[in-house]
Amino acid sequence: MLKKLIVSLGLALLAIVPLRADIKYTMHMEARVTGNANDPISQMAGGMLTQMFPAGGLDQIVISGDRGTRSEQKQAFATVKAGTVTLVRPDGAIIVIEPETKTYWKQPVMSAELAAAMGGAKPEIKVTKRGEFETINGMKAEHLTLSMTIAIPGIDASQLPPGMAPDLTMTYNVWVTDAIKASAGSTSVAMTLMKQFGMDGVKELNDGRMMLKGVMSMFGVELVMTTSPMINETVPASMFEVPADYKEVPGPIR
Fold first, then answer.
1. pTM recorded for the entire structure
2. What are the residues facing 127 on neighbouring strands?
3. How many CB atoms lie within 10 A of CB 131?
4. Where are the alpha helices (DSSP H) in 33-176?
């Protein structure tokens, strides 16, 4: 349950800042241990998180616009093979394409089990405008900090040792720019994902600006996300479609 929560939450946070049409760039992600995990649950969760990433981090070639977002994974990540393509449609639908096996599957943001457990969760969320700006990839970016606390599904607080919190506490530092505006389609994707976690009220992170850098801190681990310089590129519509000869199969998350 805890691992499913980590994966699903990571997916949502990566998508909360939308992108605009005809933008292509590389997103680099890596996990860094900070040594701030002081209890067994955090140490276990932090270990699971770092083990999901390949040595040197994960790179994704991203193309995003009115047709949605296309991410091509360059290295293996968790159970996902290198070369796998993920399509996020404007209506929030997620399709994972595996060229190696010529298969694809439709993937929910989270499993039915976790969605049921999260149904009553009401995360405590605070967004802080720090009044700080930084130039990234030649664009002025504002530094915002999101703090969130949410009860971990399946954890009985009465059974935990004294001093061990049953909550997931996360800090997400993000640098966003208005030099690139979001399309309506991409905003729809972000809102669909945010609603899964009760985060649709966080307007500061879904106001049409683009993320250039993000640092997510939880379980004594920092998940660092950086972007390469961006280019405008027109791509064929076929890159946002499943090839006709590919077979649909059940996905790993149901």
1. 0.75
2. 146
3. 7
4. 40-51, 112-118
Tokens of 158: 């009465």
Residue ranges with strand state E in the chain: 23-33, 58-65, 68-73, 85-88, 94-98, 103-107, 124-136, 139-151, 167-177, 210-218, 221-227, 231-232, 247-248
Q: Which two tokens stand for residue 24?
A: 């292509």
Instruction: Pick the closest to residue 46 from 169, 220, 223 (CA basis).
Output: 220
Cβ contact 126:147 at 8 Å: yes
| CA pseudo-torsion sign 7, 215, 201, 183 | negative
- CA distance linking residue 192 with residue 136, whole number of Å: 28
What would the two tokens of residue 204 be?
């500061």
- Which two tokens mark 182? 């979001």
Interval 167-224: pLDDT, tens? 777 888 999 998 876 555 556 556 655 665 666 566 666 677 888 999 988 778 888 9
Residue 58's φ and ψ, nearest 5 degrees, are -120, 135
CA-to-CA dists, residue 43 to 37, 50, 72, 98, 162, angstroms: 5, 11, 30, 32, 16
DSSP 228: P
Residue 204 per-residue DSSP state: G
Distance CA 186, CA 250 (A): 26
Report yes or no: 19 and 232 within 8 Å, Cβ to Cβ. Answer: no
Q: For the chain, which residues make up each domain, given as ranges?
A: 2-248
Contacts (Cβ under 8 Å, ≥6 apart) of 62: 19, 23, 24, 25, 26, 27, 69, 70, 71, 72
Can you read off the two tokens belonging to residue 48? 């699971």
